[in-house]
């Protein structure tokens, strides 16, 4: 129901204010929150008062995205630090290193699939329960699954020499370069679109600082990833060991930025819990009571 164009109705059932979480039950839809002065119409137009199944899907999607972001990048940072220590120590490739690389490839590929499911669920939640979806948002699930596929294929190709016992791992071929470019492009587009949606959600929830952090990370992550790819490509092309340390630093900052993004998404998800609980209470009360009357605003 469009509260801006319809006549004022009474709020039936618990409804937290989108800004301060004050319970607006019993108030009229054209009034303001007694606690913070925010118009009740803004809460009614936000995504937070929707039905339970949309709330659950949205929170589940944010959890999948955050877990894959935090877990994947913690693993990413640890793997690169271990690899750098291995190389700087002057050791040659051995069975332990090859086994560690294979484990990293398997876990990282699984986390990209988990992340793709989360981004796909976020898009479905947006398209079914609130109005932050634009034509760009339809690219979100496509980019998420494309990244998962390219990354997994690239990790598999990189593991083949180790699987067959070849320790002379040489420069990447055109197939590996194509997969790496495809994975990078898909990841950057997915991050710009997906984190942008999460920033808009944080704004709807009245969390401007969270939205600012997400908007910053929305562009920081892709910029760092592209820079690291350029450095790695240059090192492999001209064999410049002087760039190995700066390249490692850029990769570590990139991983830490993504970990921060995952933590921020968990905070947004925690904020949504209040609205999910209120939605569950409303649906439970509605199942026990008679249908809403004409003078009651059914949410």
Q: What report would you give on this structure?
A:
This protein has 299 residues and is mostly helical. The protein contains 7 helices and 2 strands. It has a domain of 206 residues. Strands 1-2 form a two-stranded parallel sheet. Helix 2 packs antiparallel against helix 3, helix 4 packs antiparallel against helix 5 and helix 6 packs antiparallel against helix 7. The N terminus and C terminus are likely disordered.
Number of strands: 2
End-to-end C-alpha gap: 8 Å
Count up the helices.
7
Range of strand content: under 5%
Which structural category fits the helices and strands? mainly alpha
Strand order of the largest sheet: 1-2
Shape: elongated
Q: N-to-C SSE series? A: EHHHHHHHE
Rg measurement, Å:
24 Å
- Major pleated sheet: 2 strands, parallel
Task: Give the integer mean of the pLDDT values.
Answer: 77
Helical content stands at over 70%
Low-confidence stretches: 1-5, 292-299
